[in-house]
């Protein structure tokens, strides 16, 4: 999926361990109080964990560039706010870095036209690239989320990560959020 659908996780289907009632989503919100974790899987896309320690709410987001531009971050933040979140912080995990993320210039033009800002750069091979971290940071900023992350490692050139771009692999990294209530 590369959408901006957000689902809220409340319980496991006790018949098994499925969460089929959620439908398809690229972001899942959860509560510290239900004791369950949420996970998304990526290889090059941008994994983001959002949390509000006061409201005891969290979310995990799987964001490709289309999901970012479709405002999956804003949608997820709104879903958290509807559940009671007020002060949200974010951690952005490793994804395709600007050093390696080759990107079509016509898509770059669409992003610039819709956001009025240029997120382009060049790879270490001097090819056009998209700065996904800057793009994600932009959406976190306009959603009033505190971004706790420095630029994370690049999944394409750092071979300790799985990369679809580099290897065409089906393997994925997991970003897991599991928070326990202190109340
Ligand atoms: Zn790289």
Outline of the structure:
By secondary structure, the protein is an alpha+beta fold. 23% of the residues lie in helices and 24% in strands.
Helical/strand content category: alpha+beta
Separation, N- and C-terminal Cα atoms: 35 Å
Instruction: Write the CATH fold name.
Output: CNF1/YfiH-like putative cysteine hydrolases
Poorly predicted segments: 11-22
Please give the CATH class. Alpha Beta
What small molecules does this complex bind? zinc ion
Q: What's the total helix number?
A: 5
CATH architecture: 4-Layer Sandwich
Using the alpha-carbon principal axes, give the shape. Answer: globular
Element order, helices and strands? Answer: EEEEEHHEHEEHEHE
The average pLDDT value, as a whole number, equals 87
Number of domains: 1
Task: Describe the sheet with the most strands.
Answer: 6 strands, mixed
Question: Radius of gyration over alpha carbons?
Answer: 17 Å
CATH superfamily: CNF1/YfiH-like putative cysteine hydrolases
What's the structural blueprint in terms of helices and strands?
Layout: E1 6-8, E2 27-31, E3 38-42, E4 46-52, E5 57-63, H1 65-69, H2 72-82, E6 89-92, H3 105-115, E7 120-122, E8 128-130, H4 132-142, E9 146-147, H5 164-167, E10 173-177
Parallel strand pairs: 1-2, 6-9
Antiparallel strand pairs: 2-5, 3-10, 4-5, 4-6, 7-8
Bound molecules: zinc ion.
């Amino acid at each position: 999926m590369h959408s901006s659908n957000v689902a809220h996780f409340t319980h496991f289907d006790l018949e098994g361990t499925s969460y089929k009632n959620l439908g398809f989503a690229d972001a899942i919100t959860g509560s510290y109080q239900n004791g369950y974790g949420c996970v998304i899987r990526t290889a090059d896309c941008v994994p983001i964990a959002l949390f509000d320690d006061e409201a005891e709410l969290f979310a995990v987001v799987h964001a490709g560039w289309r999901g970012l531009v479709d405002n999956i971050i804003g949608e997820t933040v709104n879903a958290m706010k509807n559940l009671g979140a007020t002060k949200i912080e974010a951690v952005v995990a490793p994804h395709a870095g600007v050093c390696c993320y080759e990107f079509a210039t016509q898509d770059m033009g669409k992003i610039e036209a819709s956001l009025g800002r240029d997120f382009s750069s060049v790879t270490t091979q001097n090819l056009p690239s998209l700065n996904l971290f800057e793009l994600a940071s932009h959406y976190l900023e306009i959603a009033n989320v505190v971004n706790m992350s420095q630029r994370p490692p690049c999944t394409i050139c750092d071979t300790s990560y799985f990369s679809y771009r580099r290897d065409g692999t089906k393997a994925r990294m997991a970003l897991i959020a599991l928070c326990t209530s202190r109340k």
